[in-house]
């Protein structure tokens, strides 16, 4: 379990190539409903990425021991992450595909030494780490590619390694092209409905949600929701504006909401046909203040 926790911490520190790597996308199944992508090089080197590492305990003992044992430092060796999931249909399943510099045998040996096991599938070494009810499988089908997921998903991904990606065209249409300034990107088909009280946008009215995050001195979020009808789009835009108004009206009574004021003040939602376009931004310094306040509260618990 200590090894599994370290792996999860590594992913968090790294997450979270200007175009999404097609070599990684081909490992995702045709049943993929949710994709998220991160340009790890740019995330880690961004002002916010550097700050998050400084407060996330990047030098804690588990992390430094992991690096010493494997020679793998995600801040230096991880380049790109793609996460795919079947979504609501199978909420516990999913795959992480990563591009980077990996010493597969050394990482696998540490998993086995920590109580995991090694197996083989279609000529590829696969490893299990974690407990019987909370473990993951991982493999290195190519020297610069790592895959992480549950056993059936991992094996299916290995089978797809020589094929072209067979993703839903609605998802592929939203994949960023070369030259994008986005550092993190996501897309989801038929996401869950959202609402409050009697104001609710039903699941069936949302066809696709996508967006991206750009990190710099200003952190910018741009997102788009494609709705089934123009009326549904107007309803969602109205709900977003209602939420923003409610939160702003409560800022004097709730310090946590007051800290979100920059995001609320810069938020914008507009309708173009059946699409709702949403954007907001805040300075990196403001986000640092938010994270410091959250860390302080957590340390008092």
Describe this structure in a few short sentences.
With 301 residues, the chain is an alpha+beta fold. The protein contains 13 helices and 14 strands.
Structure description:
With 301 residues, this protein is an alpha+beta fold. The model is unreliable at 1-18 (pLDDT under 50). Helix 4 runs parallel beside helix 13. The strands form two sheets. It has a twelve-stranded antiparallel beta sheet, sandwiched between helices. It is built from 13 helices and 14 strands. It folds into two domains: 2-162, no CATH class; 190-295, no CATH class. It has helices at 2-14, 22-25, 40-45, 47-55, 61-70, 74-77, 104-113, 151-159, 169-172, 230-249, 255-258, 261-266, 284-300, and strands spanning 34-39, 78-85, 95-100, 117-121, 124-129, 136-142, 145-149, 184-189, 194-196, 199-201, 206-214, 218-227, 268-272, 275-283.
Structural class: alpha+beta
How many strands in all? 14
Count of alpha and pi helical runs: 13
Q: How would the global form be characterised? A: globular
Mean of pLDDT: 82
Q: Percent of residues in beta strands? A: 25-35%
Number of domains: 2
Question: Which stretches are poorly predicted, pLDDT < 50 over at least 5 residues?
Answer: 1-18
| Rg for CA atoms | 21 Å
Oligomerization? single chain
- Helical residue percent? 25-40%
Distance from first to last alpha carbon: 24 Å
Order of strands across the main sheet: 4-5-6-7-3-2-1-8-11-12-14-13
**What is the string of helix and strand elements?**
HHEHHHHEEHEEEEHHEEEEEHHHEEH
Biggest beta sheet summary:
12 strands, antiparallel
């Amino acid at each position: 379990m200590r090894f599994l926790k370290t792996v999860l911490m590594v992913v968090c520190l790294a997450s979270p190539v200007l175009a999404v790597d097609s070599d990684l996308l081909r490992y995702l199944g045709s049943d993929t409903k949710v994709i998220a992508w991160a340009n790890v090089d740019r995330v880690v080197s961004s002002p916010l990425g550097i700050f998050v590492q400084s407060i996330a305990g990047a030098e804690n003992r588990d992390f430094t021991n992991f690096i010493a044992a494997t020679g793998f430092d995600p801040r230096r060796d991880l380049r790109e992450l793609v996460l795919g999931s079947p979504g609501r249909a199978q909420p516990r399943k999913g795959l992480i595909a990563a591009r980077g510099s990996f010493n597969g045998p050394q990482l696998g040996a540490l998993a086995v030494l920590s109580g995991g096991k090694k197996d083989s599938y279609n000529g590829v070494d696969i490893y299990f780490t974690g407990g019987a009810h909370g473990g993951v499988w991982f493999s290195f089908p190519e020297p610069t590619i790592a895959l992480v997921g549950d056993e059936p998903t991992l094996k299916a991904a290995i089978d797809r390694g020589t094929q072209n990606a067979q993703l839903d065209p609605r998802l592929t249409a939203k994949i960023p092209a070369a030259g994008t300034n986005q550092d993190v990107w996501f897309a989801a088909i038929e996401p869950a409905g959202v609402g409050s009280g009697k104001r609710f946008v039903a699941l069936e009215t949302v066809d696709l949600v996508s967006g991206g995050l750009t990190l710099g001195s200003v952190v910018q979020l741009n997102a788009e929701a494609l709705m089934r009808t123009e009326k549904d789009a107007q309803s969602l835009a109205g709900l977003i504006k209602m939420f923003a108004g409610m939160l702003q009206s409560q800022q004097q009574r709730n310090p946590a909401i007051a800290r979100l004021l920059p995001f609320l003040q810069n938020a914008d939602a507009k309708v173009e046909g059946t699409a709702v376009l949403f954007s907001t931004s805040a300075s990196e310094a403001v986000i640092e203040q938010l994270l410091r306040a959250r860390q302080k509260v957590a340390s008092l618990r």
